[in-house]
Structure formats: structure tokens, C-alpha cells
Amino acid sequence: MASQWLKARQTRYAAYATFYILVVAAAAVAANVLADRYDKSWDTTSNKRYSLSEQTAKIVRELKQNATITYFNQTTHFREGKDLLGEYASLSPKVHIQYVDPDKNPQLARQDGIQQMGTALVEIGDKKEIATSMTEVGITGAIIRDIKTSTRSVCFVSGSGEHQIDDTGRDGLSQLKNRLTQESYDTKTVNLIEKAEVPADCTALVIAGPTRDYDQPEVTAIQKYVENGGRAMFLMDPPLHLGSSDISSNDALAGILAGWGVTLDKDLILDLNPIGQLSGLGPQVALVTSYGSQPIVSDMKGLATGFPITRSMQIKETGKTSVQKLFDSSSTSLATSELSSPEIKVNDPKNKKGPLTIAAAGTYSTGKPDSQGRFVVVGGSTWASNRFLNFNGNSDLALNAINWLASDEDLISIRPKPPEDQHITMTRAQMNTVRMISQFGLPLLVVIVGAAVWWRRR
Question: In sequence order, what are the residues at sequence separation of 6 or more whose Cβ sits closer than 8 angstroms to the Cβ of residue 269?
Fold first, then answer.
């Protein structure tokens, strides 16, 4: 009787089912145990949006001391920070993560100056820095502030019609100031007319589109600063003379740049690139989509930058300087030397044909060990203003230039990764085809298959 029960078909099926259930359960338990012990994930997005950048990985892996990142939030919201902080912990055994609920431990939160939930504090050695945001930029910035031993100040020259960092209007630089602050730079304004000397605490000096000529003492001060190992960025607009828009040629300042191997042309680039037209850009905006190998732009492949009202330049190396081109205008661009008329003369035989150099970066040999002057020259300034800074890669370019000038190459391109644009564009005929298949084709297919099965069984 027992042997017949064991041989019964139902018994075999029950045994098979029980075995399969046990195998699946064992696999599920093993997967959960391994997932709990080994936190590993794969980012399959094309631009690695959910992975930390190579620059962040380099900084974290080269830490000489233990780093503790404390996340302050309510216990029920700890999960909001775990994914990102787990990425940091996986980079190095020197990174330790702590979670603190300010409601349960208010004294610790008050002691560390935590004022709102969802805040991260990075502690390395005896230094503590609050992350400006719960993003890679914010947390990596806090790590850098902990390991940097000196304050880094970006000084903006004022007094001759330059763009101002406290100006929130379309032509101001308030957005650039905010983004520099996020990357742990102090910003301030200096007036070389009042005192013709660049302050010693300036890590980098920015001359952002002066509309009036600099006096010789100002020019001498800037030259002395760079040639003694200082760092400076020159945003030099073309000398337009159109009604109220009157921009001086600033020949004395341009003369210094020429001595360093960057000769500014007195012209205006007009870009006839059809891609720019599709983007809603006029011919006065030079569109750039390809870049050189210099560190400022080497990681910007795939990004476009736009330069409204810009000029061209010629570059060469001198006895004490080494100059590299950053990028050119498109091959469909041209440059006109007619700067006193709003009329665009595309067919003027005097026009220079593109591509034309728009920006360059160079180094100045001071002859002293561990001392090198650096300079960046761009043939326009409006691209960095509030109204254009958010255009595609303009912000990255501005911040990368400051990073390079400040010898913070490890910061270059540490930016929030943009969301991928993966929408599908279809013609009306394609949309009708998709609608017919989804609304009629698939349901009809199900009916036909069902009828075939019924007929076969019948």
C-alpha cells in the first residue's frame, strides 16, 4: 500500500513542487544574505547619473585620515541619504557613515550647528564642514574644505564697468558667485583704482568684461600679479560702438596679453551654424561643440557652450609662456571688423572665415620653484552672466576655469549630472501606426490565439 502511494502520480507531483519551492526559497534567502553583506549596485544609465564621478573617487581613495560623514535626519527618513552615502563608504575603508536623529539627540545637532533635517556633516581630523547640499557636489565639497589647509578667494575686479558678483540682474554675476560658493570658494570685489595692487589673499583674479580703459597702474598691478605666480581670468568683450553700447578697446590690458602670447582681434564673431539657429540662437552667439585637450575643457565632450558678443584671438608661445587653445567657433562662422553698425554683412569680403579661436589658457614661467603664473582669456564676458550661465555647458566651463587657475584640478567637472533626454520623437504616421497596433492589433491577436486554442481543444 505504501509503495503504491509513493508511486502515485499526485505524490510525485507534490514531491517535485516541494523540492522546487525549497530551492527557490533557499535561493531567495541566499540572495538576501549576500545583498545585506555586500552592498553592490550597477549604474546602467548612459551618463552614469547615479554613480560618483571619477574625480570624487580619486579624492576619497587618497584620503590620508579617517573621514566620518554624519547624516542628520529623522529616523524614518534615514533612507533618503543612505544610497548616496553608501557610495562614499564603498570607495574607501577610511569613510565611516553615522546617522543621527536630531529629535532624539538635539544636543549633538546643536553642537555641530545643524539647523535643518537632511544635512550631512563631514569630519576629518579636527576639522568639520557642513555639506552645502545632499548631493555629490555638496558632500565632496565639504571633504575638500576639510582637507584644504588654506582659504581660496576669487577676486573680481570692479571700477571700470565690469560685471558685478552682487548684481542679480541679467548682466550680473550673482549666479556664478553662488556656484563658486558651493565649490568652497570665497568671493570678493577688489578695486584697483583705489589701490593698484592685487591683494595677496586672492587665489584667482577675474576681469569680467570691462567697458572702460584700465589706467596704467591697474594694468601694471595685474601684470605684476600674474608674472609673480598669480592666476587671472580675462573676459574681454569686442570693442563695440553701437549707440549706448560703447566698449573701450583697453589697449594697455590687451598689450599685456599680447606679450603673453594672446593677441585679441578687434572683431565680432557671427555664427551661421544651423544648429545654433535650431537652438534659438542668433548669429551674434557663437556655438561651440568641440574642445581641445587642455584640462579645463578635456571633460566637456558632448556639451555645447554659447558665447554671445564675442571676438576672436591669435595665440602663440613666447619665451616665458606656454599657451593652449581651448576651443574654436564653428567652420560656418565668420568675423566682421565692422563694430560701429548693427547691420550684418555676411558677404563682406573683409570678413574672416571660421573656425576662429575664442578662448585660450596659458602658463607663465616665473623662474622660481613651485611658482607658476596661469591665465585664461575668453573673447567675451556675457556667456558667464546670469542670463547665459545656465546655457548647457557654460557653467561647467566657468567653474572649470576657476578650478584650473586655483590649481584645483581635482575639482574639475564635479557637477550634478543632468537628466538624460530620452524622449521619442515620432511623425504623425508613426503615431497612427503605434495607436492601431496597441488599440486594435494586440487585442485582435489575443482573440485569434484564444479562438485557435478553443478550436484545437474542441
Answer: 286, 307, 310, 311, 312, 329, 333, 334, 335, 354, 356, 358, 379
- pLDDT tens string 125-143: 888 888 878 888 788 878 8
Residues 415 and 396: beta-carbon distance below 8 Å: yes
Surface-to-core class of residue 321, CB atoms within 10 Å of its CB (0-12 exposed, 13-18 middle, 19+ buried): buried
Each residue of 203-247: pLDDT tens digit? 999 999 999 999 999 999 999 999 999 999 999 999 998 776 789
Is residue 334 helix, strand or coil? strand
Tell me which residue of 205, 200, 202, 192 sits closest to 153, measured CA to CA: 202
Report for 88-97, 126-135, 178-187, 375-384: range of highest mean pLDDT: 375-384
Q: Given a cut of 60, is residue 2 above it in pLDDT?
A: no
54-147 homologous superfamily = Glutaredoxin (3.40.30.10)
CATH T-level fold of 154-411: Rossmann fold (3.40.50)
How far apart CA 121 and CA 71 sit, in angstroms, is 7
70 strand-pairing partners? 98, 121
Task: Report the predicted TM-score, pTM, of the whole model to 2 decimal places.
Answer: 0.70
How far apart CA 400 and CA 209 sit, in angstroms, is 19
Tell me how far apart the alpha carbons of residues 193 and 216 are, in angstroms, rounded to a whole number: 10
